[in-house]
Amino acid sequence: MMTAPLLRLESLSKSFGQVTVARDLALSLGPGEALGIVGPNGAGKSSLFAMISGDLRPDAGTVWLDGRDVTGVPPHARTRAGIGRTYQVPRPFTHLTVFENVLVCAHQGAGLHGKQAWSQAMDVLERTGLADLANTAAGRLTLLQRKRLEVARALGTGPRLLLLDEVAGGLTEPEVAELVEVIRRLHADGLGIVWIEHVVHALVKTVARMICLAGGDVVADGEPVAVLADAKVRELYLGGGPESGTAEEGP
Ligand SMILES: Nc1ncnc2c1ncn2[C@@H]1O[C@H](COP(=O)(O)OP(=O)(O)OP(=O)(O)O)[C@@H](O)[C@H]1O
Ligand SMILES: [Mg+2]
């Protein structure tokens, strides 16, 4: 028997007035696959995540998780079903500690209680390199630490599919390298990952497949180096210069 893809988007369409963020879009992700998404600002990347996580209802089309139609399923139930996401603008509870922030996600997102929630939260802090900061208030973290916490909060919900929205933006190069290591390890542990990122070289080090979104369409899909070399992608996204595609940072 064929196993169902972890995620499948079928004929997904969504417009905000004149702005089309998804146009009859199709995409499939196997269990444990890592996919990178690039595309110009306003391409519809974050909107796509919102449709996968349930924050945004598509105008038409279907979102399948493990072969189950989850299009009408509300966000909290999709979290329980195994979809964890970060937000482009981090959303920690600033007055809670790092540990408490992740514990809340283990409670609310994964439905764990007591010792199980506690050990899931500790495990996530270890995996994201935040264990030493467990008792620090989230509001006191540096940008890199906040980005790590955003990943940790998504992991706290116990996902099989992790959606990362620009977690490397604004970091220094050594910090990007640290974050790449964290995400590579999560992928090696078998997690399915979709990562939207303007820091393209971080994606290239992490994913085996990349798509480029523009105007609600998938304009390229394939091996990252090939996608970045694609003439349409270079024109749309990277400006077409000879140096493009190695270390681009979005605005
Ligand atoms: N709730 C909304 N209501 C109206 N328009 C929206 C809404 N959400 C997004 N848009 C518009 O849809 C388009 C795509 O937005 P989206 O945030 O998905 O882009 P993006 O690819 O994530 O861009 P960026 O790289 O800047 O994060 C933009 O023109 C945006 O203004
Ligand atoms: Mg976005």
TrEMBL record:
Top-level enzyme category: hydrolase
Positions of the ABC transporter domain: 7-240
Transmembrane intervals: none
Organism the protein comes from: Nonomuraea coxensis DSM 45129
SMART domains, per database record: AAA
Keyword tRNA processing: no
Keywords: ATP-binding, Hydrolase, Nucleotide-binding, Transport
Gene it is expressed from: lptB3
Pfam families: ABC_tran
One MF term in the entry's GO annotations: ATP binding
Protein name as it appears in the record: Lipopolysaccharide export system ATP-binding protein LptB
InterPro entries xref list: AAA+_ATPase (IPR003593), ABC_AA/LPS_Transport (IPR051120), ABC_transporter-like_ATP-bd (IPR003439), P-loop_NTPase (IPR027417)
EC number: 3.6.3.-
CDD domains: ABC_Mj1267_LivG_branched (cd03219)
